[in-house]
Amino acid sequence: SSRVVEIQSQMSERAVELLGLPEDRPCLLLDVGCGSGLSGDYISEEGHYWIGMDISPAMLDVAVEREVEGDLLLADVGHGIPFRPGMFDGCISISAVQWLCNADKKSHSPPKRLYRFFSTLYTALARGSRAVLQLYPENSEQLELITAQAMRAGFTGGMVVDYPNSTKAKKFFLCLFVGTSGTLPKGLGTECASEELQQAKFTNERTRFRNVKGKSVKKSRDWILEKKERRRRQGKEVRPDTKYTGRKRRPHF
After folding, report:
1. Residue 13 class from Cβ within 10 Å (0-12 exposed, 13-18 middle, 19+ buried)?
2. Alpha-carbon distance 187 to 170, whole Å?
3. How far apart are CA 129 and CA 21, in angstroms?
4. Domain 2-202, CATH
5. DSSP secondary-structure letter at 66?
6. Residue ranges per structural domain of the chain
7. What is the mean pLDDT of the chain?
8. What is the Cα–Cα distance from 88 to 20, expressed in whole angstroms?
9. Which position has the higher pLDDT, 2 or 15?
10. pTM above 0.85?
11. Which tops the pLDDT comparison, 121 or 8?
12. Strand pairing category for 125-135 and 171-177
């Protein structure tokens, strides 16, 4: 219906706004769960390029019929984002990521699928870029699960909630930063203090993960081990860990 299309377009606009893209050049964006390409239309209007991924052949057929300008890929994002590192200047997703919380098959583990999605998305995004994922969480546990897996994959950021005091207009945007921790944008219509606490709670999620084993300060042993582990997961050749890993060399030999 036209109402759905209208809401979809508004959320796409808001998501792109939250990406904070440079104004002087066209960017390449990834649209996760692009459906029939409504968000893509807005991205194209703004002068940017996009690639859309969706699990539904029927929806992608509609996008093809509508002759959208983006490229389309039929894929399950729970299997990961199959693009080369640093390819995208940003990612948006409208009402899609919460589906990864469902175990549709016996073999599906939501935390694993979410982690696979976020870790490969992190790799596919250029340093300093953002991912803005609008989602409809079923409950706070789902929000926690999704946010936790994003932080585990290396993102910083947190939840931006628009119109938190309205039942109808309330919208959740998971706003994630790659490689730089930006300041979390303010939610629209957030004049209430309780929302601030909510945001702080999600933003501190990362520090909690980082401090489980003491500190993961840059270039520390933990930091190096984590980086090597990430490399291994990407299938790269990495030297085995030893007691010398992360040790400082003596200043003279």
Report:
1. middle
2. 10
3. 8
4. 3.40.50.150
5. T
6. 2-202, 216-252
7. 86
8. 14
9. 15
10. no
11. 121
12. antiparallel
Tokens (6 digits) for 75: 């894929």
**What would the pLDDT profile of 171-192 be if each residue is shown by its tens digit?**
999 999 998 767 888 888 876 5
pLDDT at 217: 73
Q: Check pLDDT > 80 for residue 236.
A: yes
- Residue of 146, 151, 31 lying closest to 81 (CA atoms): 31
Specify the amino acid at residue 37: G
Residue listed under structure tokens 């589906």 = 99
Q: Which two tokens stand for residue 122?
A: 């992190």
Q: What is the largest CA-CA distance in the chain?
A: 73
Q: How far apart are CA 142 and CA 232, in angstroms?
A: 29
Q: Are strands 171-177 and 156-162 parallel, antiparallel or unpaired?
A: antiparallel
Question: Six-digit token pair at 214?
Answer: 């003491």
Backbone region of residue 137 per phi and psi (left: phi > 0; alpha: psi in -120 to 50; beta: other values): beta
